[in-house]
Specification:
Structural class of chain B: alpha+beta
Strand order of the largest sheet of chain B: 4-3-2-5
Number of strands of chain A: 3
Strand content of chain A: 15-25%
Distance between the termini of chain B: 90 Å
Number of strands of chain B: 6
Order of helices and strands of chain B: HEEEEHEE
Largest interface: A-B, 25 and 28 residues
Helix content of chain B: 40-55%
Number of domains of chain A: 2
Distance between the termini of chain A: 110 Å
Largest sheet of chain B: 4 strands, antiparallel
Oligomer: heterodimer
Shape of chain A: rod-shaped
Chain lengths: 140, 143
């Protein structure tokens, strides 16, 4: 008589091993789920662009108002000088973040006072480009 | 002990062989579906959901910062193949016809995943299509 007890133990071992391999395959697939969408959300420069826009509008408005209140003869030149100074600074800040921006502004002058300012913003990083023209009314 | 007087060794062999043959043949018949198509569909649906979420997230993010007077353009990444085959991503009307959804589907195995873009379409109309084989995938807005 052969000693063939313990067949069920061997059989169960094989079944459990197969089950574990199948589970492992499914786990492996689910590890990758959601990876690329979360990377994409993190990389999108939504807040950078918002901040840039907000700061530029605030800056153009403030400079316009200050120039209007100051007693300078060439208001257009004073505005441009100040805005270029701001633009250079913020460009250096954004270069540190890895994006290239370009901001220019043209004041609209009526009766020797700045009444509005056109701000052109352009933003580029590797995957997103953004450009906008904003006209800001400057109150005096 | 079993009483196996009525069955000879030869007949037993033949019976066992026949049963094994039938089982094996059946297994061969369904093996492609079981071991190749089913995992492929599983992988496709997981990956398509991811890609659909990716596109929707990008669309909504782009929508949130759309300029009043300007342009915005952003590229996104899609793997060239999923489960060894290319696939297409579309923007279609939803079933109720009031909204749009991103549909990622494969014409090869019929897996289609749709992710809704909640309400974006009501303020800014969205449409477009791209194939995974295209060199770049881009979301573009101009006003």
């Amino acid at each position: 008589m052969d000693d063939d007890s313990g067949q069920v133990i061997l059989m169960m071992a094989i079944i459990i091993v197969i089950c574990m391999v199948v589970l492992l395959l499914y786990l492996n697939q689910s590890m990758l789920a959601g990876r690329s969408s979360s990377i994409s959300v993190m990389n999108f420069p939504k807040d950078d662009i918002r901040e840039l826009k907000k700061e530029s509008i605030a800056e153009a408005y403030t400079i316009g108002k200050l120039v209007n209140n100051n007693n300078v003869s060439d208001k257009g030149k004073a505005y441009n000088d100040n805005f270029t100074y701001y633009a250079n600074n913020i460009t250096s800040l954004y270069v540190e973040k890895g994006s290239l921006i370009n901001i220019t502004s043209t004041p609209g002058i009526e009766n020797g006072k700045i009444v509005n300012a056109t701000v052109k913003i352009s933003y580029k990083n590797g995957e997103t480009t953004y450009s906008e023209n904003i006209i800001i009314l400057v109150a005096d | 002990m079993f009483d196996d007087e009525g069955v000879s060794k030869t007949l037993e062999n033949i019976i066992v062989f026949m049963i094994a043959f039938i089982l094996f043949g059946f297994l061969m018949f369904i093996s492609k579906g079981l071991f190749i198509d089913m995992p492929c569909r599983e992988v496709s649906s997981v990956q398509f959901t991811d890609i659909g979420n990716d596109i929707t997230a990008k669309l909504v993010d782009t929508y949130l910062i759309t300029p009043d007077n300007g342009t915005i353009s952003t590229t996104f990444y899609m793997p060239m193949t999923v489960g060894g085959k290319d696939y297409v991503s579309d923007i279609r009307n939803t079933g109720n016809g009031q909204d749009k959804e991103v549909v990622v589907y494969s014409p090869y195995n019929g897996v289609a995943i749709s992710v809704t873009i909640n309400g974006v379409n009501s303020t800014i109309p969205v449409n477009g299509t791209t194939s995974s084989l295209a060199p770049t995938h881009r979301i573009y807005y101009m006003k």
